[in-house]
Write a structure and sequence with these properties.
8 helices, globular, alpha/beta, Rossmann fold, seven-stranded mixed β-sheet, about 40% helix
């Protein structure tokens, strides 16, 4: 529960301490994963962690990879909002096959937080250039980048109009950004499609957005042992 403390989050967030903490947790998780999970997937997680700054733990990366691999059997495309340096996008790219992956980010860091987010984050935090992520993922086909504040960044995109989705991954940290993701993707998810979010159990704004949005929906939120949660579209 101490990770829900906003002072702790502010102290750790956005800098070297956060990266050290995540690396430490990830190393411990990897010891457990090595006893019973596919070695090729674990090697991919370790490789991506060496190549890019990454704000997910080993278990969280494994969950993104596993869900993406399962969802590609359904119709629809894949999306990620909140790309940072492209680490989780790389996990998705490895299993998406020929499906189109839409990557949405300002590529200039977080937008300004609201009062619902407390004082954990600041505007422009977690910035990484579009060119850097494009270069990192250049070997994967059917990856489309949408730069700007979501959902304005996709409002006029011809390749998004009329699209449906089997998997959408959110790593946006903030209340309004999470709510915007839910409003956009929920009606566009195919039956059985999954919306997965990072930071649900530790960021108040993310929790609030899910609680408000799902209040009148038939779906139940599934909280995972990691910081993540997911919703399966009925």
């Amino acid at each position: 529960m101490w990770l829900r403390n906003q002072r702790v989050q502010k102290f750790l967030g956005g800098g070297a301490l956060e990266r050290v903490a995540i690396r430490g947790v990830s190393a411990l998780e990897m010891l457990g994963l090595r006893t019973h999970k596919d070695s090729a997937t674990l090697s991919l997680i370790r490789r991506v962690r060496r190549e890019r700054r990454w704000l997910v733990t080993s278990n969280e990366a494994f969950m993104v990879h596993s869900l993406a691999r399962a969802q590609v059997k359904l119709p629809g495309e894949i999306a990620e909002v909140g790309v940072y340096q492209g680490g989780t996008a790389r996990m998705i790219c490895e299993v998406k096959g020929t499906k189109t992956l839409h990557l949405c980010d300002t590529f200039e860091g977080l937008p300004e937080p609201t009062s619902s987010d407390g004082k954990v984050h600041t505007g422009s935090q977690y910035a990484c250039s579009l060119e850097s992520v494009q270069g990192y993922l250049k070997d994967y086909p059917n990856v489309v980048f949408h730069k700007g504040l979501f959902p304005d960044s996709v409002a006029a995109a011809e390749d998004v109009k009329g699209s449906t989705y089997c998997f959408a991954h959110f790593d946006v940290d903030l209340y309004q950004s999470t709510l915007d993701c839910l409003k956009f993707f929920y009606p566009r998810m195919v039956t059985g499609g999954v919306m997965l979010s990072h930071d649900y159990s530790i960021l108040a704004g993310v929790r609030k957005a899910f609680a408000e949005f799902l209040a009148d929906k038939p779906e139940d939120l599934i909280e995972l042992p990691t910081t993540q949660c997911m919703v399966i579209k009925r």
